[in-house]
């Protein structure tokens, strides 16, 4: 019995949809893996530079700019990049973000002056700011509603895998080749993701019109950058940082003024009037602050105690494994208990484990157990705050 042409076409379309779905999940997870691996690479690089001749004479506040230079454009451009993705197509914006990210990574590996390295990191941050909302928008816009929760769980848990892989292999890279080699894996994965974009749907939202508030985004980025500079230089510059604080307030005020009059503002004031959004933002901010502290403080502390980079990486790996496993399981549970349950459970685990860490005088078995519990808590928070 022969199949009808309509049945054959239906089967072919279903197969193409499945392939698109698989590719969407892989690319989305790859983006988060790459961004988190890059963040981890930066924190490891700061730790390595702190105890090498290249960075021994630099204040820690200046070294930390290696991380801040990338975070500032991410914080400022995320909303604007999401609107560009809706307007011009999520695949296109994702591809542009990947190109920018890869070029910034190549520059970070090759350029010599420290100011150029920081500029390269800022370029990578701008690329990541386009990659994150575009990849998430593709998952939400192209997958059926029944498949979205699982895809978002994979998307968020991939960040833990990126952290794990970089911590496991980054110590060897830094010890064997040097701190710049930590950025090479991100470049390689970024190129692979860029090639994979050819198999993604365009992801353009119907009816999207207008031009996002670019000026507001730049004002926001400049204001955040000056705030970070004021905090990092507060001890060295004393009361002079008050002038920086005033400049930051003026820039942020300009961004808010733009937001009041622009159709597609960099700061969506309507969202900030919703209590649920504000609480969600606070939860996400707390999650980011906890993750950043976990990634930054632990390596620096262990390196300060004299542990070699390879041993530091081995010490951090169990925590990353806990993050990956916990975030995957939490993604499965979010439909059953809801995001609030995960946020409460993750916060209690992290808080209790941090209290236990404070009672330890150095790297101990209990300290390692507490770090693993923190990893479980962070993994539970990831899908709850996504």
Q: Low-confidence parts, pLDDT < 50 over ≥5 residues?
A: 5-13
CATH architecture assignment of the largest domain: Up-down Bundle
Query: Ends: how far apart?
Result: 49 Å
SSE arrangement, N to C: HHHHHHHHHHHHHH
Quickly name the level 1 CATH class of the largest domain: Mainly Alpha
Q: From the alpha-carbon coordinates, what is the Rg to the nearest angstrom?
A: 22 Å
CATH fold naming of the largest domain: Growth Hormone, Chain: A
Structural class: mainly alpha
Rounded mean pLDDT is 80
C-alpha geometry: globular
Number of strands: 0
Question: In words, what does this structure look like?
Answer:
It contains 14 helices and no strands. The chain is mainly α and 386 residues long. The chain has three domains: 17-208, MFS general substrate transporter like domains (Growth Hormone, Chain: A, Up-down Bundle); 214-261; 274-386, no CATH class. α3 (65-88) runs parallel beside α5, α4 runs antiparallel to α5 (114-142) and α12 runs antiparallel to α14. It starts with a helix and ends with a helix. The model is unreliable at 5-13 (pLDDT under 50).
SSE inventory with pairings:
Elements: H1 5-50, H2 60-63, H3 65-88, H4 90-110, H5 114-142, H6 145-176, H7 184-196, H8 214-232, H9 234-237, H10 241-261, H11 269-272, H12 275-304, H13 309-358, H14 365-385
Helix pairs in contact: 1-5, 1-6, 1-7, 1-12, 3-4, 3-5, 3-8, 4-5, 4-7, 6-13, 8-10, 12-13, 12-14, 13-14
């Amino acid at each position: 019995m022969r199949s009808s042409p309509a049945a054959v076409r239906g089967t072919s379309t279903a197969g193409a949809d499945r392939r698109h779905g698989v590719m969407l999940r892989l690319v989305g997870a790859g983006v988060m893996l790459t961004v988190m691996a890059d963040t981890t690479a930066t924190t490891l690089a700061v730790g390595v530079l702190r105890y090498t001749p290249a960075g021994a004479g630099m204040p820690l506040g200046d070294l930390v700019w290696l991380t801040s230079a990338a975070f500032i454009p991410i914080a400022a451009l995320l909303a604007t990049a999401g609107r560009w993705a809706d307007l011009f197509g999520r695949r296109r914006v994702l591809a542009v973000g990947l190109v920018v990210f890869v070029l910034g990574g190549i520059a970070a590996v090759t350029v010599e002056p420290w100011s150029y390295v920081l500029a390269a990191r800022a370029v990578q941050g701008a690329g990541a700011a386009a990659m994150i909302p575009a990849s998430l928008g593709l998952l939400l816009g192209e997958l059926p509603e029944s498949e979205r929760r699982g895809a978002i769980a994979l998307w968020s848990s991939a960040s833990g895998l990126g952290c794990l892989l970089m911590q496991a292999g980054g110590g060897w890279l830094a010890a064997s080749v040097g701190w710049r080699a930590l950025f090479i894996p991100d470049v390689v994965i970024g190129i692979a993701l860029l090639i994979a974009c050819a198999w993604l749907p365009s992801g353009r939202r119907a009816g999207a019109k207008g031009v996002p508030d670019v000026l507001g985004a730049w004002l926001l980025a400049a204001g955040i950058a000056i705030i970070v500079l004021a905090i990092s230089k507060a001890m060295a510059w004393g009361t002079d940082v008050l002038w920086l604080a005033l400049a930051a307030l003026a820039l942020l005020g300009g961004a808010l003024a733009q937001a009041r009059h622009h159709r597609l503002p960099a700061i969506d004031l309507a969202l900030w009037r919703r209590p649920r959004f504000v609480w969600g933002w606070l939860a996400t901010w707390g999650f980011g602050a906890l993750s950043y502290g976990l990634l930054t403080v632990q390596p620096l502390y262990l390196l300060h105690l004299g542990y070699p980079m390879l041993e530091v990486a081995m010490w951090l790996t169990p925590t990353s494994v806990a993050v990956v496993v916990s975030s995957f399981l939490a993604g499965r549970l979010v439909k059953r208990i809801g995001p609030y349950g995960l946020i409460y459970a993750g916060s209690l685990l992290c808080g209790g484990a941090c209290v236990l860490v404070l009672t330890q005088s150095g790297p101990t078995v209990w300290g390692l157990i507490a770090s693993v519990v923190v990893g479980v808590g962070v993994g539970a928070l990831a899908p709850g705050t996504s």
